[in-house]
Structure to design on (197 residues):
């Protein structure tokens, strides 16, 4: 009984390696959030495509969904600190909706990336690319979807955002994720979490 209970919650246990991954990629999330590196200027109502989600994607692949969620939480907190007035405006002044849009999609980025990589793990470049795409779409669709569904963000904004932001963000995520994951697989002493059998 005790062994079964431990097995059920073993994925919540953080090893020293997991803590190191969470710390490094959480710190990288903060650096991206507070420097111009995290935002790419584009001429549409959002004014920027983002690279802020990349650390959460890679952390999820490397160390599993829980670590990916922790790094996503760091991103969410940083985003809320910097952009809470914009979230509040797009949510029509509704604090729960604004916080839901700021936090939930970001926490799920690394989780989705991990579970996308898993079934494709025998083909690492494809798996990393697919995880980069789904992690990126989780961020964009999640934030805007919640604000459109529950807030006051007009659905008409989807056209410029998805025509300008999404292609840039997906290309950037794929171009960075594939070689980064490949390099970390090559130098790591243990298999990455999403590739384990």
């Amino acid at each position: 009984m005790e062994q079964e209970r431990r097995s059920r919650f073993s994925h919540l246990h953080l090893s020293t390696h997991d803590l190191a991954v969470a710390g490094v990629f959480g710190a990288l999330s903060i650096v991206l959030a507070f420097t111009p590196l995290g935002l790419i200027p584009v001429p549409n109502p959002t004014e920027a495509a983002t690279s802020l989600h990349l650390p959460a994607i890679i952390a999820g692949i490397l160390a599993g969904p829980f670590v990916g969620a922790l790094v996503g939480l760091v991103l969410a907190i940083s985003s809320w600190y910097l952009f809470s007035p914009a979230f509040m405006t797009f949510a029509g002044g509704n604090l729960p909706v604004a916080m839901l849009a700021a936090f939930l999609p970001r926490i799920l980025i690394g989780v989705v990336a991990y579970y996308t990589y898993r079934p494709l793990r025998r083909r690492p470049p494809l798996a990393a690319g697919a995880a980069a795409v789904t992690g990126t779409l989780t961020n964009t669709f999640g934030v805007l979807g919640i604000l459109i569904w529950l807030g006051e963000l007009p659905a008409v904004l989807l056209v410029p955002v998805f025509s300008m932001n999404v292609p840039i963000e997906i290309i950037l995520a794929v171009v960075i994720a594939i070689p980064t994951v490949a390099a970390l697989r090559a130098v790591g002493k243990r298999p990455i979490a999403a590739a384990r059998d």
